[in-house]
């Protein structure tokens, strides 16, 4: 079933008043745009977003048969997220899971499963984010009505091709970035709006996990309320710039970084033509797709320049912990 | 008026269905326990938490006359937060502000103001967090009813003295910490549960802003899903350990840090007797008080050992930006 059919079936059966997004690491971050969308656009529906064990150990009292839990795990085996599915079902919630792994533990503990791509190309890596956002849009539209539903559909029709094309066009800039940053030992990552947790997963997963580089991340609106005191000539920053309502927040951070000669790399949705393809009224929600696709190329080039493959781990997949 | 009276007056006038917490930096983080409490305990009330400019530039459509906005700014002049007050009022929301600064711009743009202490002692620095949490408890209890209301009151009666005593008892450990970490150039900070953003403000404000130290922060449940690949012998970590439901999450991260000889400093609510003073059913919500008070002493000792006063800035209060 597709997201629309799944939500139709759920709302035909029960009154939904809450959507809880649960995952770990990049799979948690990939759910953020959907949570952000509901927080922005829902008049009544509640939305929450947890790392799986926080949800497991401190489950909100509101999680009951009126809750839809949307969980994600790429390989479908993340123990905390599988436990969250079981826990959610025991609380009476309906569970929709996103994974690429057929018949995985995550798939087996969900009421509904959507299988997404990943390895095929840059666009496929965005399907998890995309399905979560589609589920959120369907929930909102079918429960409360959503004025820009058609614009969102237009966005979904166009975003994968645009993101793929953007990634393919990013090679030259990505190579330059890799050369400039390959000898750094650490790097900060910022963004805002729907892309806040693209910055988070870029920092926690691409930099720390996959490159063993030191990293920190924060909302670009928070930059001026603490983190900016670390800025000095050549301190490395990646700014993932949004096109849309929060652009001014990102631009203000950029102006400061440039003023004090921080070593700044900007990946900007505007450069990839987001607003020429996506209707203005839903523009914000599609930034994460372009930024994720383009920065993946940057990470690949960095890995290559540092001779540290993105798949290399010292603990993950190697030890029990 | 005290928090109870303020909420009585608000709910007598209007039906409240949403509470939005807005601030910047440490004042944003200080509101997190209140948001966490509502997300945990409310069956119907919605809760959200934003850095002020995210709220200003991308205001949720749900912000209307049924919304209470709770904002905070220590000095009452943070431009983004003052703008958020104006913006919230224009949307019809009722604004309750926390500040220590009488007749400040923040106070003048709020419907209700609670003035809190700060400089008097360690306990006074917790009043902002405490009033926000009291407001959240009153909102929940007066609107939906809350079974553990009396336990929370017992907690409020005891927590300030316990936190003050804890800070006063922390000197020796804090000095040892400062000696051990004074030559580090960066340090990670983790926590979970209601203390998640104590870790955030420790990282973004105490380390980056006030010590110009590199830092990153994440939920200790996220540690195993990316960040832990950075762990190696002597990589510096601060773990703010909670007593209560999410303790196992923190303890699992600690076991890993110790297994690989990371340079780990643990500040643990359990060591300061939190559970002997606070009723078990509300224990989680009082961790941030003890951890904040104790770590303040650690930060002071670190500042002293590094000869870098906590008040020293290069940009904040010095430039326009």
TrEMBL record, chains A, B:
GO terms for biological process: fructose 6-phosphate metabolic process; protein N-linked glycosylation; UDP-N-acetylglucosamine metabolic process. GO terms for molecular function: carbohydrate derivative binding; glutamine-fructose-6-phosphate transaminase (isomerizing) activity; isomerase activity. SUPFAM superfamilies: SIS domain. The keyword Isomerase applies. InterPro entries: FrlB_SIS, Fructosamine_deglycase_FrlB, GlmS/FrlB_SIS, SIS_dom, SIS_dom_sf. PROSITE patterns: SIS (PS51464). It comes from the Bacteria. The keyword Isomerase applies. The lineage of its organism: Bacteria, Bacillati, Bacillota, Bacilli, Lactobacillales. Keywords: Isomerase. This is Phosphosugar isomerase. Residues 6-146, 177-321 form the SIS domain.
